[in-house]
Amino acid sequence: MKLPKKDIQFKNLHILIFYLITTILIALFVYKDYGVSWDEDVQRKTAKLNFDYIFRGDKSLKTWKDRDYGVAFELPLVILEKAFKWEKPNGDETNVYYNRHFFTHLFYLFGGVFLYLLVVQLFKSKLYGILSLLLYVLNPRIYAHSYINSKDIPLMIMFIMCFYFFIRFVKKRSLKNIFILSFVSAILINVRIVGVIFPVMTIFYLLIFDFVDFRFKNYKKTLHNLGTYIFSTSILVYSFWPNLWLNPFSNFIASFVNMSHFRHDSYVLTFGEMIKASSDKSYFFKWFFTTNPLLYIILGCLGLLLMLFCVLKSKGNFLLKKQNRYIAFISSFMVASLIIIIGRGSVLYNGWRQLFFVYPSFIILVLFSMYFFKHKKIHKYIILAFVFYAVFVCYSQIKIHPYQTVYFNEIITSKKNYRAENFELDYWGHSYKEAILNLISFDKSPKIKVAFSEKIGMANVKMLNLKDKQRIVYEKDVNEADYFIARIYKDYLKFKDYKPIFEVRRNNSVVISIFKLK
Questions:
Q1: What is the pLDDT of residue 499?
Q2: Whole-model pTM?
Q3: Exposed e or buried b for every residue in 231-260, given b needs 16+ CB within 10 A?
Q4: Cβ(115)–Cβ(136) under 8 Å?
Q5: Contact criterion met (CB below 8 Å) for 287 and 352
Q6: Are 176 and 228 in contact (CB under 8 A)?
Q7: Which single residue of 145, 176, 296, 407 could bond 140 by disulfide (Cβ 3.0 to 4.6 Å)?
Q8: pLDDT for residue 464 is more than 60
C-alpha cells in the first residue's frame, strides 16, 4: 500500500529505514530457531482448501470444520508457497515452516512502520515514534509470537493500520481515504472476526466527533461518509472471504457466533490452578500483568489514570482538542474491547494471545503517561528510566531466546520450577523442535521410537530433513517408545525417576525434556 508522501518525510524515513534494516537482519539470523506451533498446520490447511476452492473449483472447503476462519493473511502465504515451491515433491516441508515464520515476522515488522507513523501523528514527536518501536519489538512474548502466530499477530497489525488510516480519514474526509479505511477494515475483519469491533466503534466515534466539531450541521455529509464506509467495507469483506460467497449473511453470522464462543474452551494452568477464562473474569489480567514487562505495565496503568484525570478535571473539555481526542480514541479501544470480550465470557486460552490486538492501544497509554509530563523536569528522567529498562528487557529477550513465549516479568519468582509448576509455559509446543534435533543427534539408530506429551511434537518432525524425518517413529503408547519427550510439567514429574538426556530450561524452570526409557 502506498504511504502518503507528507508522512514519509526524510526526517522519519531514515528512522524507519534503520529500524527495518536492523530488525530484518536480526530476523535473518534467528527465524530458523522457532519450531512449529499448534495452529500452524490447521491454518495452512484452511488456506490451501480456500486456494483449491478459488482456483480449482474444489468444494472440500464447505465441509471443513475451520472454514469460518478468514484467509486474508494465510492465502498469500499459500500462494507464495506454491509459486516458489517451498514444499518439495518428496514431501520435504522444512522450508514451508521456515518461510512461513519469516514472512509472518516480516509483516509484523511492517506493522511497526505504521505504528511509528501513527504515534508521530498523535504526539507530534519523532522521539515518541522511536519509543513506540521499542515498546513494539521489546515485548518478549509478542516478539516470539511474531514468528509462529499467523492469527493474532496479523490481527494486531491490522488494528494498527486501521488506527492510522482512521486518523487520516478524520483529518481529511475524502472518498479516497474512506476506501482505504474500508480496505484495511475488511482485511482486519477477515483476519479474525473480532475485528468487527473496529468499524462499530469507528461509526460511534465519528458521530461523536462530528457532534463536537460541527453540532451535526453537516450531518448529511457525515451520514454519506458512514454509508459509503459501511457499504464498501461490507463488499470487501465479502470479496476477500470465500466462505461467504455462497451464503454471505448466514455464514458471517455463524462465523461470528462460533468465534465469540469458540469450540475449544480449554483449561489453562494459571497461578497453580487449572481454570477456564470463560468462567474467570480475572483470567486476562492475571496473564497480562505477569507477562508484559513490569515498567510497561506501571506506565500504561498510569497513562489510563492520567487520561481519566484529564477528562474529568476538564469536564470533558480535554477532548475538544483534536490531538487529545485522537489519543483518547485509540486508548479507549483497549478498555472497550476488554469490556465487550470479558463481559461476554468469550473463550480465551494460551495466555492472552487472542487479545494481542489491544497492545497497540496500551502502547499509546504508556506513551501518554510520559507525554503528560512533557513540560516538567521529570519528563526526561521518565524517558531515561524507560530506555534503561527497555535495554534490560532486550537482555531478557535475548537470554531466553527462542522461548520468549515463556517470559514472565519480575512479579513472578524464578525459583526452581516455580513457573513450570504454576503456569502453562510453552503452550504452543514449538520447543519440540529443539528436543527432536537433539534426539536425532544423540541417537544414530535408523529408527527412533518416540512418544510425546502432545501430538504437536510430531508436527515439529516436519522441520527435519527428509532422511532424519523418516527415522522418527511416533508411538502413541509410551510403553512402546524408546524415548519420551515431556513438554507438560505433570508429564515431566511422571518420569522424574528417569534422568533426562536433554532438557531446556529458562528462568530456572524446565520447558521441555527428553527421557530415555529403554
A1: 86
A2: 0.94
A3: ebbbebbbebbbbbeeeeeebbeebeebbe
A4: yes
A5: yes
A6: no
A7: 407
A8: yes
pLDDT, tens digit (0-9, with 9 covering 90-100), for 477-515? 999 999 999 999 999 999 988 889 999 999 999 999 999
Question: How does strand 483-486 pair with strand 448-452?
Answer: parallel
- What cell numbers appear for 117 in the block? 507513523
- How far apart CA 359 and CA 301 sit, in angstroms, is 13
Give pLDDT tens digits for 220-278: 888 898 999 999 999 999 999 999 998 898 888 888 777 666 656 678 999 999 988 77
Task: Show the CA angle centred on residue 130, arms to residues 125 and 134, nearest 5°.
Answer: 145
- What is the side-by-side strand order in the sheet with 500-506? 472-474, 448-452, 483-486, 509-516, 500-506
3-state percent helix, strand, coil for the chain, nearest multiple of 5: 65, 5, 25
Handedness of CA 129, 131, 133, 139 (dihedral sign): negative
CA dist 47 and 54 (Å) reads 10
Greatest CA span in the chain, whole angstroms? 81
What is the per-residue burial (b if ≥16 Cβ within 10 Å, else e) of 95-130? ebbbbbbbbbbbbbbebbbbbbbbbbbbbebeebbb
- Look at residue 7 and tell me whether its pLDDT is greater than 60: no
16 Cβ partners below 8 Å, 6+ apart? 8, 113, 116
Q: How many CB atoms lie within 10 A of CB 89?
A: 6
Q: Which amino acid is at 102?
A: F
Q: Determine contact, residues 99/80, Cβ cutoff 8 Å.
A: yes
Q: How confident is the model at residue 78, as a pLDDT?
A: 97
